Amino acid sequence: MTATIITSDDLQQFKHELLEEIKALMPGKSAAQKQWLKSSEVRELLKISPGTLQNLRVNGHLPYTKIGGTIFYAFEDVQNMINEHKRN
After folding, report:
1. Largest interatomic CA distance in the chain
2. How many other CB atoms are there within 10 angstroms of residue 37's CB atom?
3. Where are the alpha helices (DSSP H) in the chain?
4. What percentage of the chain carries pLDDT values higher than 70?
5. Cα-flanking dihedrals φ and ψ of residue 78, to 5°?
6. Cα separation of 53 and 51, whole Å?
7. Are strands 36-38 and 65-67 parallel, antiparallel or unpaired?
8. pTM of the full predicted structure?
9. Which of 1, 18, 22, 57 has the greatest number of C-beta atoms within 10 Å?
10. How high is the pLDDT of residue 67?
């Protein structure tokens, strides 16, 4: 059995590679979150149907902005809605 010497540079390199692989496995967890989301992005984020998203809009649970034919949601409003409905 041969001995392998591991240096601190080797450990640093391993740490960076490991972190990059973990980040690649977490697609929705980017540090630079978009401020405005389209309906399809909100549906994917919350794992809900188009009808459920429409109900959240109509019932006033999720504020939105409509420009032309596109509906936008503030990421902060989506987070606030989730926090308001959180149960212990």
Report:
1. 70
2. 20
3. 8-25, 39-46, 50-58, 75-84
4. 93
5. -65, -45
6. 5
7. unpaired
8. 0.61
9. 57
10. 95
